[in-house]
Predict the structure.
Amino acid sequence: MIALVVNGTRHDVDVPADKPLLWVLREDLNIVGPKFGCGVAACGACTVHVDGQAVRSCSLPVGEAAGKAVTTIEGLGNGRLHAVQRAWIEEQVPQCGYCQPGFIMATAALLRDKPRPTDADIDEALTNICRCGTYSAVRRAVHRAAAIIGGAS
Ligand code: FES
Ligand code: FES
């Protein structure tokens, strides 16, 4: 049994310790915001936070998340829209939407570390892949989220 705390709720899951966290979230806990894209830590669609750090959950054995705080997009705003989600809506970023939870989770982690990121910081931190090509809208939304968090709008 592995004890996981996801979005503030404790779950005891009967799974092998090497099962990827993404599959435990999706299959065992029915938390489907994190998406499967590549399965090899390349695309970022599966990004969640583990103890506040952005992590590609397709490549993290669930045993390594035991006892740590896991946050998915479902819990990011704690019942409300997080500033990053608000910025995403205001900038109308998503196209098909599939990759967007990963971008939003990566952005929230970035802004916690760097409240005013430059374009270069954004390019370095957000290595996620979007097949719809929303990259320029993502960049605008990151700056807007930084402004919302900083109280500029
Ligand atoms: S599915 Fe995890 S990085 Fe692509
Ligand atoms: S919005 Fe479609 S893959 Fe990114």
